[in-house]
Automatic annotation (TrEMBL):
Keywords: Oxidoreductase. InterPro entries: NAD(P)-bd_dom_sf, SDR_fam. It holds the Pfam family adh_short_C2. Belongs to the short-chain dehydrogenases/reductases (SDR) family. It comes from the Bacteria. It comes from Calidithermus terrae. This is Dihydroanticapsin 7-dehydrogenase. The gene is bacC_2.
Length: 254
């Protein structure tokens, strides 16, 4: 059975997929800490889940990852699971097709999504190496390897998620002998605050009916959270280096 009883987890992000993941991991028995730069998001989640601890920090700050891991160790005594779910879209900063994209668009998603994931992994690996075990799950995107030219031409976003996938596989190979598993999930279009633009666009919703044919609808944050829960648990004890697509058939749709 998928269980995290007796384990501790640190999740980055406090809304959308990250919030659903915190709920799900807590429901599986984990002691959970959530990192977010929004005190409002953290307060909302802590009110909903009194057992979940919030840690307010911005991963753009070089010391934030180390501070978050230290706080988790101080509270739980160990760190068994890291879920890198925090992420942004750079569209409002100028992300788009490469010939139109701005440096700010590129830097915004690379700094928050790719560098933030790297920093959190680096901070968490110290205690995981000491204890000889751990599970890291990185949230990427199906757009890293299955583009959608017309509706989702945000090339910096695709690239940063490709970086998350490459980092996942490289880490999985290196840390497997140390008992540390590293996997990724690649969601399709999920009904989160970040996809609000898409949710209100009839043309995109029509596209989703074709591109996510399993349901013909957007996925839910809980769909992704359950996949993360599996990869984080001992049910996946023999699984590392995989990219689990949670996208309703996105990459195989005609």
């Amino acid at each position: 059975m998928t269980s995290l009883t007796g384990k501790s987890a640190l999740v980055t992000g406090a809304s959308g997929i990250a919030a659903a993941t915190a709920r799900h991991l807590a429901g599986l028995g984990a002691a959970v800490m959530v990192l977010d730069r929004s005190g409002e998001n953290l307060s909302r989640l802590e009110s909903e889940l009194p057992g979940v601890a919030g840690f307010e920090a911005d991963l753009l700050e070089p010391s934030a990852a180390d501070a978050a891991v230290a706080a988790a160790l101080g509270r739980f005594g160990r760190l068994d699971v890291l879920v890198n779910a925090a992420g942004i879209s750079g569209r409002r900063f100028g992300d788009g097709p490469v010939h139109e994209a701005t440096d700010a668009g590129w830097d915004s998603v690379m700094d928050t999504n790719a560098r933030g994931t790297f920093r959190m992994c680096r901070a968490a690996l110290g205690p995981m190496l000491e204890q000889g075990s751990g599970a890291i799950v990185n949230v990427a995107s199906v757009l890293a390897y299955a583009p959608a030219r017309e509706f989702f031409a945000t090339h910096a976003y695709a690239a940063c998620n490709g970086a998350r996938i490459a980092l996942t596989k490289a880490m999985a190979a290196y840390y497997a002998p140390h008992g540390i598993r590293v996997n990724a999930v690649a969601p399709g279009l999920i009904a989160t605050p970040m996809s609000a633009r898409a949710q209100g666009d009839p043309a995109i919703l029509g596209y989703v009916r074709v591109r996510q044919p399993l349901t013909g609808e957007l996925g839910t944050p809980e769909d992704v959270a359950q996949a993360i829960g599996y990869l984080a648990s001992d049910a996946a004890r023999f699984v590392t280096g995989v990219v689990l697509e949670v996208a309703g058939g996105w990459s195989v749709a005609g």
